[in-house]
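hey can u check if this looks right to u? its 153 residues, i copy pasted from the old doc so theres a chance i mangled smth
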Amino acid sequence: MRLLESKDAVAIVVNRCFGGFSISIEAAQWMAERGHKKAAAELKEWGKDSQLIRFYREHGRWPDGTKPEETDILEIHAKYRQDAVWYGFGYTDGVNDGYERDDPILVEAVRTLGERANGSCAALEIVFIPVGVDWYIDEYDGSEKVCERHREW
């Protein structure tokens, strides 16, 4: 049974399968087009990595001035993969946390795109909880649920 959204509920995006939360490139593009800065930053970083990999494949070396810390992991991708890996977690340079799960733009992306919003090994779902609940996301091997926070000793 799907709950209907109301002014008394908060919408939260969770992953319902083993593997972990991630959004697709299409979802990140959809969000970036609507002003989501974290999605735009993740797309920009992925694009930069993709350009570096293409350069390496064409020239057999990294561009002048490229720092080793930029290319350590990329070299593996350049040799054994088609392109830079898209993660879809929301982690980018200078950002230590992923996507806020109650972010209205993320929620709308999942609602609008449906399964196309799912990243690799993800099955995203929107869960509605009452406004005012102190919540957190609990997960086991990437499969998530929303829990109400209680006191602990």
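The longest helix spans residues 37-59.
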